[in-house]
Amino acid sequence: MKKTGMAQNHQRHPFVMLDVMEVTEDGTRVSGRKRVTAGDAGMPGGRMPAGLVLEALAQTAGPVLDRGGGARSAEGAEAGANAAPAAERWVLAGVEACRMGRRRPEAGEAIETEVEVVRRRRAAVKVSARARVGGVMIAEAELRFVRIG
């Protein structure tokens, strides 16, 4: 795995939900890590809300969207057709099969996120995403992204 700078995360403070991201060489998987602090925005009672955990999963997918790696389209596009130019922007279009555990990350804990490309089409990507704290699954979802530019 290759560590990436946070320059690949298009979010800025206070919306950054990751501290570190690592991408596989083929660009189909990304893992991320976020140390939860009491000073994080939107942390009532020192616990991270489920919506922010989902946002961390979506931000983890950023590098695989930009790289154009992953499963090839069903249309059998030629090699390199799925590569995304740097000017493209991707947005979260849907959340499917989302399961959130009862456990919420607390200040001082680290969230480990993991995203893998399931399917890639011309202007859409579907990923499988998971979040864990201390090895315990706290969230799991399939996320759909669409290209808008």
The stretches of 5 or more residues where confidence is low (pLDDT under 50) are 69-85
Estimate the helix proportion, in percent.
Answer: 10-25%
> Which structural category do the helix and sheet elements fall into?
mainly beta
**Biggest sheet overview:** 7 strands, antiparallel
What order do the helices and strands follow? EEEHHEEEE
Q: What is the 3D shape?
A: globular
Widest beta sheet: strand line-up? 1-2-3-5-6-7-4
Residue-averaged pLDDT: 79
Rg over CA atoms, rounded to whole Å, is 15 Å
Annotation field: number of helices: 2
Number of extended strands: 7
End-to-end Cα distance, whole Å, is 29 Å
Range of strand content = 35-45%
In short:
It is built from 2 helices and 7 strands, in the order E-E-E-H-H-E-E-E-E. The protein has helices spanning 50-60, 62-67; strands at 2-4, 20-23, 29-35, 90-100, 110-120, 124-133, 136-147.
